């Protein structure tokens, strides 16, 4: 009976939308077909690794050890023996952690510098090949770069934010430029209707 249920799920699965994907599910793939194993700095990095492998359909990321295991199948996800792991499908969207309140705990230090804001701190991280996570403290403008961030603690620093290198700079310049372009576009088309 169990094989029949899995077969039915596999037949129906391709027609499901992205909202039906299994993404960031607490637990690990159980009795899946092992594909590969590597170290990854984050869940997002593990997802990218899976997406770059044509045989990968599922992956499990272990936050404590930063191990990423990919699978060609995953009949079941269980959290019985794993409190520090997340499992997802290859088609999960890339949604990195960006400007989340808190501090990285037990992270591997890469470097630190002073920056004006979190966007500049993100750019520092993106410019450093060893950096995969950043932490910015707005109380003293300190930017800390990390290889990983196993845990984010939001209890002790209410002026700190944490993010991954895959984040995008969200500062005012891009919005300001888009706003000026939109105003110019609107004025032109108001004066020159089609």
Structural summary, described in words:
There is one protein chain. This protein has helices spanning 2-12, 43-51, 118-127, 172-191, and strands at residues 25-26, 28-30, 33-39, 58-62, 67-73, 76-78, 85-89, 100-101, 103-105, 109-114, 133-137, 142-146, 151-153, 160-164. The strands form 4 sheets. A 5-stranded antiparallel sheet has the order 1-7-4-5-3, with helices on one face. Strands 8-14-11-12-10 form a 5-stranded antiparallel sheet, covered by helices on one side. A two-stranded antiparallel sheet has the order 2-6. The protein is an alpha+beta fold and 194 residues long. Helices cover 26% and strands 31% of the residues.
Key attributes of the depicted protein:
about 190 residues, alpha+beta, Hepatocyte Growth Factor, 2 domains, five-stranded antiparallel sheet, 4 helices, about 25% helix, about 30% strand
Q: What does the secondary structure layout of this molecule look like, with pairings?
A:
Elements: H1 2-12, E1 25-26, E2 28-30, E3 33-39, H2 43-51, E4 58-62, E5 67-73, E6 76-78, E7 85-89, E8 100-101, E9 103-105, E10 109-114, H3 118-127, E11 133-137, E12 142-146, E13 151-153, E14 160-164, H4 172-191
Antiparallel strand pairs: 1-7, 2-6, 3-5, 4-5, 4-7, 8-14, 9-13, 10-12, 11-12, 11-14
């Amino acid at each position: 009976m169990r094989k029949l249920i899995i077969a039915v799920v596999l037949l129906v699965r391709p027609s499901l939308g992205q909202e039906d994907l299994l993404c960031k599910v607490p637990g690990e793939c159980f009795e899946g077909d092992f594909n590969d194993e590597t170290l990854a700095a984050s869940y997002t990095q593990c997802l990218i690794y899976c997406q770059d492998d044509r045989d990968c359909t599922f992956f499990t990321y272990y936050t404590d050890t930063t191990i990423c295991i990919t699978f060609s199948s995953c009949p079941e996800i269980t959290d019985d023996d794993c409190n520090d792991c997340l499992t997802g499908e290859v088609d999960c969207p890339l949604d990195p952690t960006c400007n989340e309140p808190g501090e990285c705990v037990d992270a591997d230090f890469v470097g630190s510098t002073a920056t004006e804001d979190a966007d500049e701190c993100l750019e520092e991280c993106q410019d450093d090949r060893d950096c995969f996570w950043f932490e910015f403290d707005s109380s003293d403008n300190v930017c800390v770069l990390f290889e990983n961030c196993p845990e984010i603690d939001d209890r002790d620093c209410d002026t700190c934010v944490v993010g991954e290198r895959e984040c995008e700079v969200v500062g005012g310049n891009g919005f300001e430029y888009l706003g000026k372009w939109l105003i110019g576009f609107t004025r032109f088309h108001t004066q020159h209707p089609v």
